[in-house]
Amino acid sequence: MGKKGKEAARERREQRRREVTRLRALPYEPHQRWWDLLEPRAVAVVTGANRGMGFEAARQLALHGLHVVLTSRDAAKGQEAAGRILEEAPDGARVSVEWRQLDVADAASVEAFAAWALQTHGGIHVLVNNAGVNFNKGPDNSVDFAEQVIETNYYGMKRMTDAMIPLMKPSPYGARIVNVSSRLGRANGRRNRIGDASLRDKLLNDDCLSEQLIDEMIKRFLEQVRQGTWSSNQWPQMYTDYSVSKLAVNAYTRLVSRTLWDRPEGQKIYINCFCPGWVKTDMTGWEGNISAEEGADTGVWLALLPCEQGTHGKFFAERREISF
C-alpha cells in the first residue's frame, strides 16, 4: 500500500471512529433497554476485568444499570477495581458491582464460579469472555508461552462458555455471550492468515466446522511449537500464538452459535465475537491507538443489543460486521 493508500485508510478509520463516538453518545430508548425490564436486575459476568478492556466493559455495563460480577485471578486487584467503579459512578447512578475470584485457565476455578453464580444469582444474562494474555509486543514473535496463551485465550473461553450456557436465565429478550477476539485471528486475512488453504476452507465452511477440527488445529500447532518445527509460513505471521488462539475463538463462536440458535423462544442465547482494535493497555505495551473505553464499546454494544436487532455467530469491529 502506497503513501496515498495509507493516508486514505487512516482517514477511513478516523471517520469510523468519529461515527462510533457519535453513536455512543446516543441514549438507548426505554423500549430498547431490555435489561431494565427484568426483575431481579440483569446479571453480567466479565472475565479478566480488574484492568484494561475488561475493567472498561464492566464499568460501562454497570453504568447502563446491569449488576456486574467483575472477575479476576488476583483478589486485591479485583476488589480494588470493583471499588473504583462504585466510587467513580456519577451521583444517582444505579451502579451495582461485586468481585469474584476466577481463573479461566483452571477448570476447578470455573466449576466453583459456576456453582456460586447459580447459588447466588440463580444464573446470569450476559457473559463477556474477556480474559486473555499475550506475551509479544512490538516486533516480537516468540512462541515460548504458546501453551499458556492457548490455554487462557481459547480453552479458558471455551471452558467458561460451556459452564455458563446452562446458567443463562430464560428471558423473552435472550441472553448474550460476547467473546473478545482479534482481527489477527481471521482465517483468511490478507496479511496474517494460516498457510494451509485446505484448513482455511474447512474453518470457514459451516458444513466442515467442528469442535474436533478446531481442537486438532490447536493440538497440531502446539506439537510443532514443542518440536520446534512450527513455521510462520504455515501459521499467522504476527503474534503467532495469540493469533492462533483468536482464530480458534472465532471458529468456536460460529460453531456454538448454530446450536444456541435452535433453542426455543424465551431461551435464545446470542453469541458473537468482536475485535476491540489496537487498544492502549498493558497487553499492547500501551502502544495502541485507541483507549480502553473505546475498545470496550463494541463488546458492550453487542451485550446490550435490543432483541429485535439480535444477531448471532458474527464477528464485529467498530459496531460493524466484519468477515472471519
UniProtKB/TrEMBL annotation:
Pfam families given in the database record:
adh_short (PF00106)
Entry's Gene Ontology molecular function annotations: oxidoreductase activity
Specify the domain of life of the species encoding this protein.
Eukaryota
* Entry annotated with the keyword Iron: no
Principal EC category: oxidoreductase
Looking up InterPro entries in the UniProt record yields: CBR1-like, NAD(P)-bd_dom_sf, SDR_fam
Tell me what this protein is called: Short-chain dehydrogenase/reductase
Q: Where does this protein come from, organism-wise?
A: Urochloa decumbens
Source organism phylogeny: Eukaryota, Viridiplantae, Streptophyta, Embryophyta, Tracheophyta
